[in-house]
Protein backbone atom coordinates (compact mmCIF):
# COMPACT_ATOMS: atom_id res chain seq x y z
CA UNK A 1 0.00 0.00 0.00
CA UNK A 2 2.79 2.42 -0.85
CA UNK A 3 1.68 3.03 -4.42
CA UNK A 4 0.68 6.72 -4.73
CA UNK A 5 -2.88 5.81 -5.72
CA UNK A 6 -3.37 3.97 -2.43
CA UNK A 7 -2.30 7.09 -0.51
CA UNK A 8 -4.82 9.42 -2.13
CA UNK A 9 -8.46 9.67 -1.03
CA UNK A 10 -10.22 9.41 -4.39
CA UNK A 11 -13.57 10.29 -2.81
CA UNK A 12 -12.30 13.84 -2.26
CA UNK A 13 -11.58 14.34 -5.94
CA UNK A 14 -12.82 17.73 -7.13
CA UNK A 15 -15.25 17.27 -10.00
CA UNK A 16 -14.30 20.62 -11.58
CA UNK A 17 -10.52 20.21 -11.73
CA UNK A 18 -10.74 16.45 -12.32
CA UNK A 19 -7.61 14.73 -13.50
CA UNK A 20 -5.37 17.78 -13.00
CA UNK A 21 -6.01 17.83 -9.26
CA UNK A 22 -5.58 14.06 -9.03
CA UNK A 23 -2.23 14.26 -10.82
CA UNK A 24 -1.09 17.00 -8.46
CA UNK A 25 -2.07 15.03 -5.36
CA UNK A 26 -0.40 11.89 -6.72
CA UNK A 27 2.76 13.90 -7.27
CA UNK A 28 2.90 14.74 -3.57
CA UNK A 29 2.73 11.04 -2.72
CA UNK A 30 5.36 9.77 -5.14
CA UNK A 31 8.77 8.77 -3.81
CA UNK A 32 11.67 10.69 -5.32
CA UNK A 33 14.71 9.14 -3.63
CA UNK A 34 16.42 5.74 -3.75
CA UNK A 35 17.10 3.76 -0.58
CA UNK A 36 20.29 1.72 -0.27
CA UNK A 37 19.98 -1.02 2.34
CA UNK A 38 23.17 -2.70 3.63
CA UNK A 39 22.36 -5.90 5.54
CA UNK A 40 25.32 -7.03 7.67
CA UNK A 41 25.49 -10.44 9.27
CA UNK A 42 27.04 -10.36 12.74
CA UNK A 43 30.59 -11.66 13.18
CA UNK A 44 31.65 -15.05 14.55
CA UNK A 45 30.53 -15.59 18.15
CA UNK A 46 30.88 -18.02 21.04
CA UNK A 47 28.59 -20.94 20.20
CA UNK A 48 29.01 -22.46 23.68
CA UNK A 49 27.17 -19.63 25.41
CA UNK A 50 23.92 -20.86 26.96
CA UNK A 51 22.23 -17.47 27.21
CA UNK A 52 22.32 -14.63 24.70
CA UNK A 53 24.54 -12.51 26.98
CA UNK A 54 27.15 -15.29 26.90
CA UNK A 55 27.22 -15.51 23.10
CA UNK A 56 29.81 -12.79 22.69
CA UNK A 57 32.09 -12.30 19.69
CA UNK A 58 35.21 -14.43 19.46
CA UNK A 59 38.60 -12.74 18.91
CA UNK A 60 38.25 -13.68 15.21
CA UNK A 61 34.72 -12.26 15.21
CA UNK A 62 36.02 -8.94 16.47
CA UNK A 63 38.60 -8.94 13.66
CA UNK A 64 35.85 -9.64 11.15
CA UNK A 65 33.79 -6.72 12.44
CA UNK A 66 36.80 -4.41 12.11
CA UNK A 67 37.23 -5.53 8.50
CA UNK A 68 33.55 -5.01 7.76
CA UNK A 69 33.60 -1.55 9.34
CA UNK A 70 36.68 -0.60 7.34
CA UNK A 71 35.03 -1.83 4.15
CA UNK A 72 31.86 0.19 4.75
CA UNK A 73 33.88 3.30 5.54
CA UNK A 74 35.95 2.86 2.37
CA UNK A 75 32.79 3.11 0.23
CA UNK A 76 32.74 6.83 0.92
CA UNK A 77 28.98 6.95 1.46
CA UNK A 78 27.11 9.18 3.86
CA UNK A 79 25.33 6.59 5.98
CA UNK A 80 22.13 7.80 7.66
CA UNK A 81 21.82 5.26 10.46
CA UNK A 82 22.72 1.83 11.79
CA UNK A 83 19.77 -0.27 12.94
CA UNK A 84 20.79 -3.45 14.72
CA UNK A 85 19.35 -6.51 16.40
CA UNK A 86 19.27 -6.30 20.19
CA UNK A 87 21.05 -9.67 20.51
CA UNK A 88 24.55 -9.55 21.99
CA UNK A 89 26.48 -10.69 18.93
CA UNK A 90 24.77 -8.12 16.69
CA UNK A 91 25.18 -5.33 19.25
CA UNK A 92 28.89 -6.03 19.65
CA UNK A 93 29.36 -6.18 15.87
CA UNK A 94 27.60 -2.82 15.59
CA UNK A 95 29.80 -1.20 18.23
CA UNK A 96 32.95 -2.20 16.34
CA UNK A 97 31.60 -1.19 12.93
CA UNK A 98 30.40 2.17 14.25
CA UNK A 99 33.96 3.12 15.25
CA UNK A 100 34.70 3.33 11.53
CA UNK A 101 31.58 5.46 10.90
CA UNK A 102 31.71 8.24 13.50
CA UNK A 103 28.58 10.29 13.92
CA UNK A 104 26.20 7.69 12.45
CA UNK A 105 23.39 7.09 14.94
CA UNK A 106 22.68 3.57 16.22
CA UNK A 107 19.22 2.17 16.90
CA UNK A 108 18.54 -1.18 18.60
CA UNK A 109 15.42 -3.23 17.82
CA UNK A 110 14.00 -6.59 18.87
CA UNK A 111 12.36 -7.03 15.45
CA UNK A 112 15.69 -8.05 13.89
CA UNK A 113 16.55 -10.76 16.43
CA UNK A 114 17.41 -14.19 15.03
CA UNK A 115 14.67 -16.76 14.59
CA UNK A 116 12.86 -19.20 12.31
CA UNK A 117 11.13 -17.06 9.65
CA UNK A 118 9.21 -19.71 7.71
CA UNK A 119 9.45 -23.47 7.23
CA UNK A 120 12.09 -24.02 4.52
CA UNK A 121 11.37 -25.85 1.29
CA UNK A 122 13.01 -28.28 0.76
CA UNK A 123 13.30 -29.17 4.46
CA UNK A 124 16.68 -29.88 6.03
CA UNK A 125 17.48 -32.69 8.43
CA UNK A 126 19.97 -30.84 10.63
CA UNK A 127 17.66 -27.98 11.63
CA UNK A 128 14.12 -28.66 12.82
CA UNK A 129 12.77 -26.06 15.25
CA UNK A 130 9.43 -26.57 16.98
CA UNK A 131 6.49 -25.65 14.75
CA UNK A 132 5.38 -22.94 17.19
CA UNK A 133 8.70 -21.15 16.63
CA UNK A 134 7.76 -20.43 13.01
CA UNK A 135 4.57 -18.73 14.18
CA UNK A 136 6.29 -16.67 16.86
CA UNK A 137 9.46 -15.73 14.98
CA UNK A 138 7.86 -15.64 11.54
CA UNK A 139 5.38 -12.92 12.43
CA UNK A 140 8.12 -10.81 13.99
CA UNK A 141 10.56 -11.19 11.09
CA UNK A 142 7.82 -10.45 8.57
CA UNK A 143 7.02 -7.33 10.61
CA UNK A 144 10.70 -6.36 10.39
CA UNK A 145 10.57 -6.73 6.60
CA UNK A 146 7.45 -4.59 6.27
CA UNK A 147 8.75 -1.99 8.69
CA UNK A 148 12.22 -1.52 7.22
CA UNK A 149 12.19 -2.66 3.56
CA UNK A 150 10.10 -0.29 1.47
CA UNK A 151 10.44 2.60 -0.97
CA UNK A 152 11.46 6.00 0.34
CA UNK A 153 8.92 8.29 1.93
CA UNK A 154 7.60 10.97 -0.43
CA UNK A 155 9.15 13.64 1.82
CA UNK A 156 12.65 12.18 1.36
CA UNK A 157 14.54 14.38 -1.10
CA UNK A 158 17.97 12.67 -1.26
CA UNK A 159 19.07 9.06 -1.63
CA UNK A 160 19.69 7.32 1.70
CA UNK A 161 22.23 4.74 2.85
CA UNK A 162 21.22 2.61 5.82
CA UNK A 163 22.97 -0.24 7.61
CA UNK A 164 21.14 -3.11 9.31
CA UNK A 165 23.23 -5.44 11.49
CA UNK A 166 21.38 -8.66 12.20
CA UNK A 167 21.37 -12.40 11.49
CA UNK A 168 21.63 -14.88 8.64
CA UNK A 169 18.05 -16.19 8.82
CA UNK A 170 16.61 -12.69 8.96
CA UNK A 171 18.73 -11.44 6.05
CA UNK A 172 18.00 -14.43 3.84
CA UNK A 173 14.25 -14.12 4.44
CA UNK A 174 14.33 -10.36 3.77
CA UNK A 175 16.20 -10.90 0.49
CA UNK A 176 13.60 -13.42 -0.71
CA UNK A 177 10.71 -11.15 0.25
CA UNK A 178 12.30 -8.03 -1.24
CA UNK A 179 12.96 -9.73 -4.57
CA UNK A 180 9.51 -11.37 -4.57
CA UNK A 181 11.03 -14.86 -4.56
CA UNK A 182 9.24 -17.68 -2.69
CA UNK A 183 10.26 -16.99 0.94
CA UNK A 184 10.36 -20.73 1.65
CA UNK A 185 13.64 -20.81 -0.30
CA UNK A 186 15.51 -18.67 2.24
CA UNK A 187 17.64 -21.57 3.51
CA UNK A 188 19.12 -22.21 0.05
CA UNK A 189 21.43 -19.22 0.55
CA UNK A 190 24.50 -19.15 2.78
CA UNK A 191 26.00 -16.04 4.39
CA UNK A 192 29.46 -15.59 5.87
CA UNK A 193 30.01 -13.85 9.19
CA UNK A 194 30.46 -10.11 8.79
CA UNK A 195 29.21 -10.26 5.19
CA UNK A 196 27.55 -7.38 3.33
CA UNK A 197 24.30 -7.73 1.38
CA UNK A 198 23.24 -4.66 -0.59
CA UNK A 199 19.65 -4.02 -1.65
CA UNK A 200 18.56 -1.01 -3.73
CA UNK A 201 14.95 0.20 -3.56
CA UNK A 202 13.99 2.59 -6.36
CA UNK A 203 11.26 5.27 -6.08
CA UNK A 204 8.87 3.12 -8.15
CA UNK A 205 9.24 0.26 -5.67
CA UNK A 206 11.52 -1.92 -7.80
CA UNK A 207 14.21 -3.73 -5.83
CA UNK A 208 17.63 -4.86 -7.04
CA UNK A 209 20.22 -7.02 -5.27
CA UNK A 210 23.70 -5.58 -5.78
CA UNK A 211 25.64 -7.97 -3.55
CA UNK A 212 24.72 -11.04 -1.50
CA UNK A 213 26.92 -12.06 1.43
CA UNK A 214 30.04 -10.27 0.18
CA UNK A 215 33.23 -10.98 2.16
CA UNK A 216 35.72 -10.39 -0.64
CA UNK A 217 37.31 -7.70 1.52
CA UNK A 218 38.40 -10.32 4.11
CA UNK A 219 41.51 -12.50 3.86
CA UNK A 220 40.46 -16.12 3.14
CA UNK A 221 41.70 -17.33 6.54
CA UNK A 222 39.38 -14.86 8.31
CA UNK A 223 36.17 -16.08 6.62
CA UNK A 224 33.70 -18.20 8.62
CA UNK A 225 30.01 -19.11 8.44
CA UNK A 226 29.32 -20.42 11.94
Automatic annotation (TrEMBL):
Its main location: mitochondrion. InterPro entries: His_Pase_superF_clade-1, His_PPase_superfam, Mito_Ser/Thr_phosphatase. It catalyses: O-phospho-L-seryl-[protein] + H2O = L-seryl-[protein] + phosphate; O-phospho-L-threonyl-[protein] + H2O = L-threonyl-[protein] + phosphate. It is found in: Mitochondrion outer membrane. GO terms for molecular function: protein serine/threonine phosphatase activity. It comes from the Eukaryota. The keyword Mitochondrion applies. It holds the Pfam family His_Phos_1. GO terms for cellular component: mitochondrial outer membrane. One of its GO terms (biological process) is positive regulation of mitochondrial fission. Its EC number is 3.1.3.16. Keywords: Hydrolase, Membrane, Mitochondrion, Mitochondrion outer membrane, Necrosis. It is an enzyme of class 3 (hydrolase). Belongs to the phosphoglycerate mutase family. BPG-dependent PGAM subfamily. This is Serine/threonine-protein phosphatase PGAM5, mitochondrial. It comes from Psilopogon haemacephalus (coppersmith barbet). The gene is Pgam5.
